[in-house]
Amino acid sequence: VRVELDSNIRNLPWTFKPQETIVNVHPGEVRQVIYEVTNTTDRAITGQAIPSYGPRNAERYFQKLDCFCFAKQTLQPGEVRRMPVVFVVDPDLPKDIPVITLSYTFFEVEGHAKN
Predict the structure, then answer these.
(1) DSSP per-residue codes, the chain
(2) Neighbours of 60 (CB within 10 A)
(3) In contact, 43 and 15? CB cutoff 8 Å
(4) Is residue 106 within 8 Å of residue 67, measured between CB atoms?
(5) Number of C-beta neighbours around residue 21 at 10 A
(6) What are phi and psi for residue 61, nearest 5 degrees?
(7) Which residues pair with 8 in a beta bridge?
């Protein structure tokens, strides 16, 4: 199965990208990918990543065992962080889904915005 990795920022002065944009996995195989995020400002900022999947029904076959999206991330000024996602694609994935897109969008957490 081909897994395409995507990253987006919503109103957040960070850079954010996967180290690999495409990985091939065998269903049932535990796989880790790394996303890199950089706070490009001179202040600490807290963000939260929200995942989405394509096609939409692929989500039920994509199990994240560990993910930076499980918790808020606070980056210090200029900090660069490499964050893992550990996942398994269910062996019951239908044959008509040869590609899964995993996309994350980072948002600034409310209450942590600059006044």
Answers:
(1) -EEEEEEEEES--EEEEES-SEEE--TT-EEEEEEEEEE-SSS-EEEEEEEEEESGGGGGGEEEEEEGGGS-EEE-TT-EEEEEEEEEE-TT--TT--EEEEEEEEEEPTT-S--
(2) 11
(3) no
(4) no
(5) 12
(6) -105, 0
(7) 105
Tokens at 14, concatenated: 């960070």
> Mind listing the pLDDT tens digit for each residue in 3-47?
999 999 998 999 999 999 999 999 999 999 999 999 999 999 999
Distance CA 101, CA 26 (A): 15
Tokens, residue 67: 């993910």
70 φ, ψ to 5°? Answer: -75, -15
Average pLDDT, the chain: 94
Burial class (CB in 10 A: 0-12, 13-18, 19+), 39: buried
Instruction: Answer for the pair 12, 4: CB distance below 8 angstroms, yes or no.
Output: no
The model's pTM: 0.91
